[in-house]
Records
---
Amino acid sequence: MRPTGKLHLGNFMGALANWVKLQEQYECYFFIADLHALTTDYADTSQVATNTLEVALDFLGAGLNPENCTIFVQSQVKQHYELPLLLGMITPLGWLERVPSYKEMIENLAQKDLTTYGFLGYPVLMASDILLYQPQFVPVGQDQQAHVELTREIARRFNQFYKLGEQEVLPEPKVLLTPSPKLPGTDGRKMSKSYGNTIQMTDPEPVVRQKLKTMVTDPARIRRTDKGDPDKCPVGDLHKVFSTPATLAKVYDGCRSAGIGCIECKGWAADALVQVLNPIQERRAGFTEPQVLEILHEGSSRARARAQQTMDEVHAAMKMTLTGDTGR
Ligand code: ADP
């Protein structure tokens, strides 16, 4: 997760909530990708450290438990600077230019100059982030599958060039497709930091209620007496994710018969959101800054040790070691 701001409900439902479950079943590494924040926000780095702490608090609030998983900061694990250079040597330019999000983001973020070496190379950084832990799986949503596919291609190329005994040094990881509902923001588009349409995990109840009040609804339902359709309404989408079956049934009946108004329906959606957010916010408030720093230092240290094992194998396979066995 990139530390470009506090996390929102889309990040929670789309990723974090799954991670909380996965930590019980797998040995997991979760990191705050501060180096990736630089690929687009290189000109102003003043907020990266603050945002890193906020994201760590959001992780902990959501229920990631440092006893069950490793939580770390990418820039604190220097192997994340090291492997991209080596993998960059073997990655054809065409593979990077073909990444779907590359052209898309250059167009979407036209106000930023993204014609940089770092931005073109971010999939190599991403591949390294994954391969450093020699994982079996990467838990991502549909939108990230292309990145994992590229990671597999880079690993395959590495393994063809460089060998170390029978085992492949960089096994190709598989995608662990995690079900992730695409949550709409208050303007009806996908909830995203870049659109300014988010409900943050830290928003207090009055803010949640206010944001819901301004949220767009089924465009066909203009007057209170018009019948609506929750399947065409962003608030309906929130109900589908967060409300109980009983509330959802009331929403469908009430909206389709014009028995309820949008204000009432939004109130119920807000109730459901607040119920999800309350325990997260309480857990979050239980951590002090020194505690969070300690968790991140400790996690980064664990990640460094694991990543170094991989780097030792990478160096050995590439014969980039000073062994003193030339026989002179
Ligand atoms: P943002 O668009 O706010 O910058 P990111 O692209 O950093 O969010 O997304 C981080 C993670 O959260 C990704 O795994 C992404 O799939 C998930 N995510 C982001 N927005 C949503 C959303 N609206 N609905 C579901 N998942 C989302």
---
Amino acid sequence: MNHQKSEQAYQQAQQYIPGGVNSPVRAFQSVEISPVFVQRAKGSHLWDIDGNEYIDYICSWGPMILGHSHPMMQQGALEAIDAGISFGLPTLREVEMAKIITSAYPAAEMVRMVNSGTEATMSAIRVARGYTGRDKIVKFEGCYHGHSDGLLVKAGSGALTYGVPTSPGVPEDITRHTLVCRYNDIESVKETFSANENQIAAIILEPIAGNMGVIPAKKEFLQQLRELCNKTGAVLIFDEVISGFRVGFGGAAQQYGIFPDMVCFGKIIGAGMPVGAYGGKKEIMEWVSPKGPVYQAGTLSGNPLAMFMGLKQLGYLEQHSEIYQQLEQTGQKLQEGIQTILNRHQLPYQVQRAGSLCCIFFTEKPVLCYDDAMTCDTELFKIYFREMLAQGVLVAPSQFEAMFVSVAHTERDLEQTFVAMDKAFAAVKAAQGN
Ligand code: KE4
């Protein structure tokens, strides 16, 4: 594959943009090759500016659940643009968006639109602090909730990929309010609560972790967090930015049958446009300005064009619930195919999945928490990634991310993926000896 134009673009980009990208994981630094610059995408495929074609398992890190540039998404888009892109005044589409989200997710009796997952989690925590009058929050090692100061502590995703889980530039005055526990380990949480009695405003977690690789929470763990919050008055916040509308129309809460006090969304609800949202119980959300005293605002929150696209996607998912069975079947075939290839090469790696979210951990032990994920061999992952890319299969350029499957991924895509994977794991096996 020729990547000359991408390489030139990357050189130029680095003159104007830190690291040449507008989000760190896109720089491919952890796999030590120049990133591909995208020309266009359609369905499950993506073309770079050198004309190379890929099967895309990044899917914009989750939003493109229907695949890229779905024909249905384009219907009416020009009329929506022609009607005006932003007004700074309320529109009916924002009410429609709030209605479809609250109907999908009963724990969200009310919802506020924002512009990213980061804004959603940052705002939800501020509201939980205002509502409880408490300052401390509990997060989990390896979970990533965006880049707001208080949450860049032992964070996953790019922070983990680049080995800076706790970022410079975040004052200790802020991080001292962030207590970090071990995912899937209720004892670590109980100890933290005992040591911080009546001081903890909220627990925030990804109910299906997707930022240290894919680690579904144990049901018992979520149940015990629910009970602990009931007992202590702490607000339970599910960060469903990845899992929301992905593992089911009701997200992980519906799948587990365990419901938070607040929830954060992003990605799928915007269909690729910059959209986030946070919601929760009415008694909590009524603390949000201008109804209540907790301030949160945004010039482009509920942007009419973004709402148009988000509503198209959510409306389609709501009317075509069979999509979730299709995604589960494709995800299962992917997982089984990967396992078959690993067995063939006698590689003891772990394949973990939640619906259409899948991950191969380059370690021989099941991965239940951050420490387990840290046993992965990222050097061997790098070989795997580069071999897959060379054969036209684009997976996330990091061991600590997920493969996303869309409804556009076909049997043929899977077959091509398995052929590429067979060669990639052969290269990994060969490198293991070195
Ligand atoms: P954004 O601010 O990037 O829209 O959302 C932050 C966020 C919040 N919560 C969860 C569970 C998330 O996964 C994210 C963002 N996810 C990463 C990829 N795992 C975004 C990719 C990137 O940073 O470029």
